[in-house]
Amino acid sequence: MDELTEVADAIADPVRREILVMLRHTPLTAGEIAAPFTISRPAVSRHLRVLRESGLVRDEQVGRHRRYSLVQSRLGHLARWLAQFDAQRSDWSQRLAALETEVHRTRRDRSRAESTSTPRITHHSQEDTA
Question: How many CB atoms lie within 10 A of CB 115?
Fold first, then answer.
């Protein structure tokens, strides 16, 4: 089985995708991973095994616990393959940049217009009015 198929098969299950999201920022023990799920711990362990065998996560024995961490590089090939279908991504970046420029231009123009059209009120002391 090629790498792309292996990774795609592993992320096909929503529980496994959620586990990957959980591991995005920090390694977790199997217990920490299993806690939010309503499925049994053995079921979570099977999902972790599939992710480990696909190379998406690695495990390390730390004392009595096994810590799992994400192997982000394995997602790269799939991300590159999927990018060919996302032709609008760069188009959206350009559109958002143009919108940002227009927003700044409009704010600048309004600010200039307000500063030139605001009547200046001068306060005179009572001595000047007497």
Answer: 8
Q: Model-level pTM?
A: 0.65
Ramachandran region, residue 125 (left: φ > 0; alpha: ψ -120 to 50; beta: rest): beta
**Given a cut of 60, is residue 16 above it in pLDDT?**
yes
Question: Cβ neighbours of residue 54 under 8 Å, at least 6 residues apart?
Answer: 6, 7, 9, 10, 74
Residue 117, burial from CB neighbour count under 10 angstroms (0-12, 13-18, 19+): exposed
pLDDT confidence band for 123 (50 / 70 / 90): low
Q: Which tokens is 112 given?
A: 């200039």
The residue ranges of DSSP E strands in the chain, in sequence order, are: 28-29, 57-62, 65-70
Residue pair 70/23 in contact (Cβ under 8 Å)? The answer is yes
- How many beta carbons lie within 10 A of that of residue 34, not counting itself? 19
Strands 65-70 and 57-62: antiparallel
- What confidence tier does 11 reach under pLDDT thresholds 50, 70, 90? very high
